[in-house]
């Protein structure tokens, strides 16, 4: 067999069901994937394929790793943003970009994945020895899965794909979950129980560790409210009475209120990276930081105490420790829940004029409000694009189930959300998978709506179209509902605010019948965001 077939055999052993990307790459061109029972998903733009692989990794429990492949040269150039996005969001992904033939690999100008992908990958190798294929690919999967998850890249020169390989047996590498130092756990619990107004802050690491139950148990035992990062959103049920919602560029009023008054912030599964798309970390309280990656500690936020380890193992150890300390309920849960409800209601009262606005063009907050009222969030996975789409959705959408929301936390290219929604739908066909985007984002990757049609991925795409980009003086145009129809899906343009809910209901029925849907809402130029300031 040759290297192409060898890689396909390895992917089968690694449990891979899909490979995303764009030809020409021998993994796609030779038919070997179909022979091995792996489905290839061909997109119209390379980075959308990386985004779909990204989503598959994020919303699939266990050790799932999305796999991406692309053409040498232009394909690897176009793919760079998608792999960089996965790196920024700490997403496990294995990429197989083709490289130029070894005979002209170093001829200038030639884009080299080996050289250029090193800063956006956890590991980056070029396969030059066909007989090293098993160990090279095993290292990539192990790198992606172990420790802080991030992309691993194996560049395969075009000619090497066809080199013969001696038969071999392949066993996937071991996935490790480092536990916490018992002494560090004990001190963290000391500090948490001594605090008068603690807040727990959960990041994406809780999702990867599947530490949802332990997080909820710790919150209920300590009677502490829980906030999340945007990547961690849905790690704690947002319909729970102790939920504060997610921190982002725009966020719920109750979150800012409790951060302002907390005397201890316990971050778990989070990097505490200083970003405009996260919480403002208070500087006058105690910080306890639990993370898998030791380089996160004291990186941007000075910690008073740190607990290193897998988020689930840390949380479970803390639950066990708390149970040995407490004799029963602490007696403050009702007061904390009542305070959250009171502040939340006051915040929502401020926003109801926009959430329930009858103005035309439609206020985008009206669209988000109707979306939250119509959709059963427990049966949905929602994501958004950068800018206003994110800022309108994040504070008001409540996800009650783990992995019901795909967020991001640092920097994001426009057009990300479409691939995420399609990847989520592929992983969870039983869920209503939604992406919310705007004029700028649809201009980047909009034609990949046809990918949803071609692969029978009935997503619900919500377009907020105000004919400009995010308040910038950049006028745009286009009738995207008609475009969606032309691409084989269902498109509908809505201009009347009183038709928003009915249109969403129609769209959901179309997705249930198997048709991808684009609902284009003509919206006003809304600029106000929910960003309550800390005192």
UniProtKB/TrEMBL annotation:
Pfam families attached to this UniProt entry: TPP_enzyme_C, TPP_enzyme_M, TPP_enzyme_N
Ranges of residues in domain Thiamine pyrophosphate enzyme TPP-binding: 385-520
Domain Thiamine pyrophosphate enzyme central span(s) in chain numbering: 185-318
Biological processes per GO annotation: isoleucine biosynthetic process; L-valine biosynthetic process; sulfur compound biosynthetic process
GO cellular component: acetolactate synthase complex
Cofactor(s) this protein requires: thiamine diphosphate
Residues in coiled coil: none
Family statement drawn from the similarity comment of this UniProt entry: Belongs to the TPP enzyme family.
Protein name, entry field: Thiamine pyrophosphate-requiring protein
Organism: Haloplanus rubicundus
